[in-house]
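Predict structure. Chain length: 162.
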Amino acid sequence: MAVGAIVFVLLNLLLLTAFARRSVALRAQLAESHEEWSGMQQLLGEQGLWSAREAALTGKQPAMANDNAAGVELLDKVHALAKAHQVTVENEVFNGVQKAQWYQSVPVSLDTHSSWPDLISFLYALQKPDQFIVCEDANIQVDPGDQTKMVCHFKIARWYAP
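Prediction complete.
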């Protein structure tokens, strides 16, 4: 009888431990599902906002007419802005058209040389929202020969509609 009671208690302890583990796992899954549900409700509540943003984006994002001309247009725009902001542009390289799911990218790589305030004003003028021009990569360093100047390597791209 004592052995039976000990086996009964041990079996109950094993079952209770298994149930406790399962309960913790189910509670974590329930919390995760609740968090996912809350996120979906928030997105559904902001559906009008996202529809308006998508309409604005598709209405303003330019379409690419010519793959080769797009790179030249971007370089011309960069040169015009650089000249207006006293930024020297060197070593321009057109990297071809790259296609992504939501846009087509026309990147160019280039080096610049300028003072820090001129560089900031150049980048500010370059990346205005309606222009769809972005700096995909930037390496900005102080010129070792002149501590008042900045030497930069940029990968600048213009994004077009897919």
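Summary: The beta strands are 88-94, 98-99, 104-115, 133-142, 149-160.
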